[in-house]
Protein 1
Amino acid sequence: IGSKKSMPLCFDIYEPDCNSIVYRPLVITLYGGAFVVGSRNNSDMRAYCKNLAQCGYRAVTIDYSTMKLRCLSSRNLIRTAYMAAQDLSTAIRFFKANYYEYGIDTTNIFLLGSSSGSIVILHEMFMDNDERPMEIFEEPYLGELHSKGDTVLLHHSNEVAGAIIQWGGILNTSMIDLEKLTKNNFCFIHCEGDPLVPFTYGHCFSMKFIPCLYGSKDIVSYIDDLGFNNYDFYHFEQRHHAYYYNIIYGIGLNKKRFDVCLQITLDFLEKSINNAYYRKISKENCFSY
């Protein structure tokens, strides 16, 4: 489907300079870009990682599968998003397998996404093999969701401690089950007037050939009905997609808005991680890249 990434997928890791704690919580970040643009070097993901490292976390920004704009179609979007979810699953298991080298507390791995990155996270966390769209089975068959990686990685699970979902959505809320929910903490951030990824339900970009998604409001309503309440939900009235992001200027002109989302993230992580442990790592104000 015209993947733009013929080379191995890579990541950049940011970590505190202070070495007082060997194993630290890890935050894996996934950029946005509609599966056709963007990279792990997106300004918002770099800013998140730098700030998280300053607060004592290890943070990585990762590559995932994308496609060429000329290949854009409903079928290719679904297949590319699925391959990106496979990439995320592989990344989680890679860091678990290599926790010693990177100094990771594997019980405190969190995911943070923007737009398509959040779409990847939701499907990686909740989609079962019997819920895969029919497009996955077309030639070439894409395989099971958590089947990528070498033999060592297959011995590790894809489970994490929680996720920050920024302006994301899911193909079907019925994929979300209570058993998986109760293993995690969640934070949802979305603009009510999002014109690209719907706040409730609809076609992304308001284009009929692009798949419909259930946005944050519908996801939260669904998990409320399941009796799950271990989540935060922040929604803004603005008619924006990414609350802080400006396509031309990056986060520069909206730094105050980015800082709002950063503080939401830090507060969420602080309460989601064992408090005694967090007190040891917070506010170290030093990082390396």
Protein 2
Amino acid sequence: MSSLQAAKAAVLSFRTRFETFELTDMRQAAEAHCDPQFLWRGVHPFLEINGYDGVIDDFWRPLSRAFSNLQRREDIFFAGSNNASGGNGEWVCSMGHFCGLFDEDFLSIPRSGRLANLRYAEFFRVEDGQLCEGALFVDMIGLMDDAGCY
């Protein structure tokens, strides 16, 4: 298996367990697949979070509470090597939509009670089978517009 295929397999293995959105599974998946020094970057108001426990508590748990039956609908999934700026490792990219019923307020965006499709682009840097760094960009403006929140 090539290193790029191995990086994609590591991300898929992590997500398979993580995306049950059960707190225990999320924490166990992060512990098994993420470097203890994991660094995550997200859109405002999340910005940078060190350690996957913070990512779970600050982003994923509130998101999964706000959207019933949350699921990922992936359109694009690929990997590539990057050594720019002295960096190492393979990066895995996923793009698509998170879909779910917008049943509870998320941040200060009022619930719509309808199906929401939240566009995303997610990136993971993988080294030696461990997720070391990640970034998740979600279309908060699109979600606000869909909810009629201006």
Protein 3
Amino acid sequence: MMGAVLHTINIRLSPERMGHTIAHAEDKVILVSADFLPLLEQIRDSLGTVRRIVLLTDEPQTLQTSLRLDGEYEALLAGSVPLPDFPNFDENTRATTFYTTGTTGQPKGVFFSHRQIVLHTLAGVAALASNPVQGRFHREDVYMPITPMFHVHAWGIPYMATLLGVKQVYPGKYVPETLARLIHKEKVTFSHCVPTILHMLLTDPKCAGYDLSGWKVVVGGAALPRALCDTALDRGIDVFAGYGMSETCPILTLSHLSGAELTSDRETQTSLRTRTGKAMPMVRLRLIDEAGQTVPDDDRTPGALQVRAPWLTRSYLKDPEDKAGLWSEGWMNTGDAACRDSAGSLRITDRTKDVIKTGGEWISSLELEDIILRHPAAADAAVIARPDPRWGETPLALVVPRPEAVEPEREIVRHVKEFVTRGVLPKEAVLVRVRLVEAIPRTSVGKTDKLTLRAVYLDKDD
């Protein structure tokens, strides 16, 4: 609020990439937790623009560091003199910067103005607080984010929580038992996280004894698998999906259920909760084919998803010419393929670059992953396209098996074929091959790192 730009640094990036973001953003002052001083020391050669380093610590401690510190935050604050007048500046002044965690090249800087953040906050509150019961976020909630602040302002929801005046709980490291204990102790009612974190919490034996009923959780950053949704519902968790991008501030859609939908059977509820959902206020979405024509809202025809809203980033930092091709004719390109039904509910089918094109048919890697994860033999899974001389591409399923699984490759292929027979998957999905792996690599924000999977497993594929 003093007109400075806040750059939330992704501490999960490699030191080289983290140093690049600091230099690229031309950071002047760094506020650093004592825990991360060793990390900052590793990139000291990238701190050419930095004039001050301010320590953040909860309690006095003896520190050994080669960095020159300019004081401790709380002590500096206690000794400061309040500004006589609140600064006045244009609402279009840049307020925040953070960097996308691309798997190729250096991270790209995304930035937002005060106006954009305020508009996104107001629209988010209108969307979350207006649903009568399911997934409602209101001023008597207790809020605990389980998404890092460097990941799109923790999805912008801390701004909404502050606007509503709710109690906020910040957990530090995302240790499953710590999260469950805080939910119980602080009576947390509203959170958000990526599927990986929720899966860790629900499968950790140390968390089994905690009552999580009534906890509302928005899942985003990746598709919400049906199996995970069912497990959460069994624990009494009000789980539902949200969708957005780093470049969209980020929330665009939410999969809220109406009162009538809440009385539907479990299968229908799971299907609705795991959809991408309906647009927030002030968000306009469209789906276009390769010729640029709008596709029908039949929930079957996929199209490239484009978006308009008053809070979308105008470009990447220091890329005013939009060399990355973020915008086309006034619409932002999301890079996602999706379908939409007649009620306006969106269903992301894949990243456009991850769609598997088999014999002229498109197979959604996300849908195939979701179906594989419904099989009890699969603990985790990812699907990538495997080059094929006859079909062009066929799906390769990389599966982390559960310890008790018997012949998981054969059982999962049989499981996929059952869904083909039922008409849920296109017939070309029977060409799936299953390879067992020890783990699925993730990016720094918990998304499946398919670039790494392609590099590692396609070269080994026979």
Protein 4
Amino acid sequence: MRRLYNLLVRLAAPVAFGVVLARGFRDRGYWQGLRERFGFGSRLQSQPSIWLHAVSLGEVSAAAPIVRELLARYPQIPIVVTTATPTGRARALGLFGDRVDVRFLPYDLPGAVQRFLDRVMPTQAIIMETELWPNLYRECARRALPLLLASARLSAKSVSRYRRFGNLFSGLFSPNVLIGAQTSMDARRFEQIGADPARIQVVGNVKFDVDVGANVIEQGLMLRQRNIGVRPVWAAGSTHEGEDEQVLDAHARVCAQHAIALLILAPRHPQRFAAVAALLERGAWRYVRRSAGVPVPPDVQVLLLDTVGELLAFYGAADLAFVGGSLVPVGGHNLLEPAALKLPVLTGPSDFNGPEIAAMLVESGAARRVGNAVELAAAVSELLADSLERQRIGAIARRAVEINRGSAQRLVKLIEAQSANALPVPPASPASPNP
């Protein structure tokens, strides 16, 4: 099985690289760090590093509390953050700047993996959620490199898929691998694909540690004052193809009751910005693009958020938020960011990326489910008309986030225990990020 896997990876890597080159004609971010995808790139000049991998934008955002905690505890150790997408890379650079070394994770080719590890010299590896790459894990085991799966999750569908491949994946969980599972159900599913129960701990979901301090709230208020003005505002974040149309249908219905309402529409992927702008043109919507950098005139109906890294601030500029990827079968995106900003949250029925979070928010009254454009419009219109109800729901949402915090610190403790002989003793009272 291993030989077959390596053959398939060698055949697939040139195809994947060709796709990256082709996408670069639409998004030049794909042409950054091309050599890194084969394990090349600069060598760290100083001491060995702590390496964290977060596959894309959402995982990078979720990893932020862990990275900040590590920067505070170990300012003398280089932190390397890898990702697989240009949006993830841009998000990491936006969050951490030059405090971390940001690069792409190489394809799972034996030689590429070895070159990458030789260059970044990690003493600890941290992989967010679930990225199971046989050659990468095998090389980490060969080097006795401690590897932590952080905030790890596994769906029932994934269990069936991994089990079909026999020992290719069950053999990944060598003694150097520790799993920090989100829930007890995730822990059981990792056991089902070969992980040692003694090497699994339930630590919760690090997304609850989302950092939305007063500066983000203030930034949102300033954006609203300077760019939007006094009018009802709702945001639709991380939308996908087939979902934008439903959101705009809902907004047309909202505008029938709230004539001056503004929709902040934020597509999930930058390569779709132009397509969504064309959709607005075809629908004869009055809109402006955020990238134009101009205030929103009073007669504009839609602000197209065609920038990366500003969604959180624009959630802060809204009265309520719909989180996309949920009216189409994508599995939903991060409901906790608007919840942490004390916003009522709306979500569709597709939630397999985080069913526990969605269920908890809905059951507590912090979020509402909507099944289509008509239900979305009704919920938005109702909430825009009732500021006291928005405040009540927003307070519940914020509290739901606060009482579930702490996963980042639990994960850092696991890292310190796993790498006790490689990491220096941190200061007695390390600086912690703002809650």
